[in-house]
Amino acid sequence: MDLLKVKKNDVLLKACLKEPVPYVPVWYMRQAGRYQPEYRAIRQKYSFFEISHNPEICAEVTKLPVTQLGVDAAILFADIMTPLKSIGINVDIVEGIGPVIENPIRSEKDLEGIRLLNPGNDIPFVQETIKILRDKLDVPLIGFAGAPFTLASYLIEGGPSKGYHITKGFMYSKPHLWQNLMARLSDLTISYLEAQIEAGAQIVQVFDSWVGALNSEDYHQYIAPFMHYIFSELKKTGVPTIYFASGATHLLKEWNELPVDVISLDWRTTIEEVRNQHIDKALQGNLDPSLLLAPFDLIKKRTKAILDQGKDKPGFIFNLGHGIFPSVKVDTLKKLTDYIHQYTRKDPVND
Amino acid sequence: MDLLKVKKNDVLLKACLKEPVPYVPVWYMRQAGRYQPEYRAIRQKYSFFEISHNPEICAEVTKLPVTQLGVDAAILFADIMTPLKSIGINVDIVEGIGPVIENPIRSEKDLEGIRLLNPGNDIPFVQETIKILRDKLDVPLIGFAGAPFTLASYLIEGGPSKGYHITKGFMYSKPHLWQNLMARLSDLTISYLEAQIEAGAQIVQVFDSWVGALNSEDYHQYIAPFMHYIFSELKKTGVPTIYFASGATHLLKEWNELPVDVISLDWRTTIEEVRNQHIDKALQGNLDPSLLLAPFDLIKKRTKAILDQGKDKPGFIFNLGHGIFPSVKVDTLKKLTDYIHQYTRKDPVND
């Protein structure tokens, strides 16, 4: 398939599809970010959205960690709020807080603004960035989007939340409005990811960062049908899909029923425990990002334990259980990437 | 034992000890709080610590939900930061944020201030409040304290955190200092709970609210020895103990090895799943507090499912999976309490 053609390094694509790989591929969530001195310098000059809306700068920021760390993929630099902002929702990224929405959703009328994307008008900069990157990268480019529950939590709470009480209260007490909201956000997500794929994204990851706040009964009833719809539509593109959440080990059996290719795990479980639960998807994960502040010997020990459980079965991608944070050192990630590649590289003689 | 004598209602005490009960006892975390109009009126006049340091007002606030909701226990009105504040740590409770520490712990020197409590000098108001309450209550009085990891997270981060990266970085990279800090916080916690028990607290709950951020390997290595020590010391008092965390289903097997009487569950698991894991402690939980915003029929349905799994085996206490929040209606909790009592009350004829 043409979309999946990669000039050189296709290890991540193979791992997503559970094909044999020469070594365990690795990339890191939030691998472009404030932990990089170069990124901090760019952010002195531009706001988050100024970077993500300028294809040349955005491509540079997206590509930097690939060169710097030697990872096996680039992930589009953007925010999960990008598609919402692009259809006119008033959202800002506030430093130290996160996305903040000016007019939180409360009633049916508030849903009217949530419409399908018209890529050429709404996100030309995303498609342009992807085209530039496809030309420059020799690793696959991952596109991404937020999942409906996680987007809804920002839209309803008005910003980040601890307990998601307003969101869940809305879900429980206005089920028809909830279905309407989730259907609109699902269509938006699909149109956003299709636009990325059309422009050249070769893998897409769906971030449902906060859905672990729900128990499996709620997930099954209020969320799963929409995730099933999203991944079914994406399947038609032929591009591999990854589903991520934090603190969602209790939802893995639900996730295993979805038409998604890869499940991204956090550190609250182990690859072995997940395999013992008969989860048969490709897996991605699952180092605690806090460990990046540990002495390198401890990072290596914990990484080795993950690799020992993951590397011998097809379909394993090394990643963190959540994003990199600002106080991590670039050098730590560079050494970690090298270690993962070296430790898992198959001896060509025995291949 | 004299400490355990309750004038009238000892149902909760019996449930903690897995003895037969006439109905499932219920109380709610943060049952004294901003959801009550009476509490809001008192908070107009006094700060949080002004209330908790004034025995007459504190006893009134502690007792109010017992009268108002008909619950089977009172829980001392205090904050988990109370013992730290009482030994001179500069902590404030900031509205909408939580506990904020002026000088976060970074080095060995910063640990020196963490010392044992001298109850008569440091927390006379806590003991006085408990004495007033024991005289006025006809339900058991629950004392409580924060657990070392959760206290350490505030002390190290300087306030609430999302990822606990600084705390975990400290734990991984300064293991001796971490042990020192945890030992000091363990001794503080024990002395604080012993003082509450001496004054009349009949059950104690240890809040390890954020420890679910660790995986079970870290919990086993860095936390479990201290929790073992705390619960072993408390066992000598004869007072039943409860251990609470949020998002910690993955730690239940570790918890089952501790000398604690009751494990408090959040909504991300079910009583049935926990029993199937051979967790044999008494259990407390586990309604999602967000459900308190749902129509009452749905609250009842979800509560019934919990009760059906919990009520027929000795050792079950109904509670929420986390604390009540301000937008909950008092009337909802009153109706819920009545429903739980009615639905689980054993027919005296069949007794």
From TrEMBL, chains A, B:
Keywords: Cytoplasm, Decarboxylase, Lyase, Porphyrin biosynthesis. It is an enzyme of class 4 (lyase). Its EC number is 4.1.1.37. Residues 25-34, 142-158 form the Uroporphyrinogen decarboxylase (URO-D) domain. One of its GO terms (molecular function) is uroporphyrinogen decarboxylase activity. One of its GO terms (biological process) is protoporphyrinogen IX biosynthetic process. Substrate binds at residues 30-34, 49, 79, 154, 209, 322. It is found in: Cytoplasm. Pathway: Porphyrin-containing compound metabolism; protoporphyrin-IX biosynthesis; coproporphyrinogen-III from 5-aminolevulinate: step 4/4. It catalyses: uroporphyrinogen III + 4 H(+) = coproporphyrinogen III + 4 CO2. InterPro entries: UROD/MetE-like_sf, Uroporphyrinogen_deCO2ase_HemE, Uroporphyrinogen_deCOase. The keyword Cytoplasm applies. The record marks 79 as: Transition state stabilizer. CDD domains: URO-D (cd00717). GO terms for cellular component: cytosol. Catalyzes the decarboxylation of four acetate groups of uroporphyrinogen-III to yield coproporphyrinogen-III. PANTHER family: METHYLTETRAHYDROFOLATE:HOMOCYSTEINE METHYLTRANSFERASE RELATED, UROPORPHYRINOGEN DECARBOXYLASE. Belongs to the uroporphyrinogen decarboxylase family. Homodimer. HAMAP family: URO_D. This is Uroporphyrinogen decarboxylase. It comes from Terrilactibacillus tamarindi.
